[in-house]
Write a structure and sequence with these properties.
about 10% helix, nine-stranded antiparallel sheet
Length: about 190
């Protein structure tokens, strides 16, 4: 079995974890025991209760309870009533922060995952993974090759215009020029 990122990896600031996720390999064991793998090329950090783009901004709710757990678990939510989105919870218990996994590179296992909804669809992630461990038997991250600083671009997050000044914070991390990154070309 390949090495996995330990729970301690997630027990840090969301922006630091987001940066360090680029180049890591998302893995999902399917019920038939096959393992899907994809190299992460785009993520967004949601940095705590003061972040107006975060689901935790207005406090704890039944929907966001996983965000208040200690780092290393999944927070899965549905957007527009259609698409699931997978986040890695970060930091300490009680401080709601997470990293949205937005895109994975397709050459590994042929997985096409450009955009958070497509990523969940490609990896067969649904609401049943909300609260699941990122060091568990069915969902984990392998070290892969950390993207070098020169290849990382930081931009504003996508689709959070309602968050005022928080929408302009450069908390989206992307492997520059990746054809698998989502969003407008100017943000790749």
């Amino acid at each position: 079995m390949k090495r996995r990122l330990p729970r301690e990896f997630f027990a840090r600031d969301a922006a630091a974890v987001a940066r360090d996720l680029l180049g890591r390999v998302l893995c999902r064991r399917l019920p038939d025991r096959r393992v899907l793998r994809g190299r992460l090329v785009e993520v967004e950090a949601y940095v705590g209760p003061e972040d107006r783009a975060s689901h935790a901004w207005r406090g704890r709710t039944p929907r966001n309870v996983a965000m208040f757990e200690a780092g290393g678990i999944a927070y899965v939510f549905r957007v527009y009533g259609i698409h699931f989105c997978l986040n890695a919870v970060t930091g300490r218990q009680g401080f709601p922060a997470a990293v949205l996994l937005r895109a994975a590179e397709s050459p590994i296992d042929g997985v096409s995952a450009s955009g958070p909804g497509r990523l969940c669809r490609a990896f067969s992630v649904d609401a049943s993974f909300d609260g699941a461990s990122f060091v568990g038997p069915d969902l984990w991250l392998e070290p892969g090759d950390l993207a070098p600083d020169r290849a990382v671009q930081r931009t504003a997050r996508i689709g959070v215009d309602y968050a005022g000044a928080w929408a302009r914070r450069r908390l989206r991390f992307v492997v520059a020029g990746s054809p698998d990154a989502s969003g407008p070309r100017r943000l790749r």
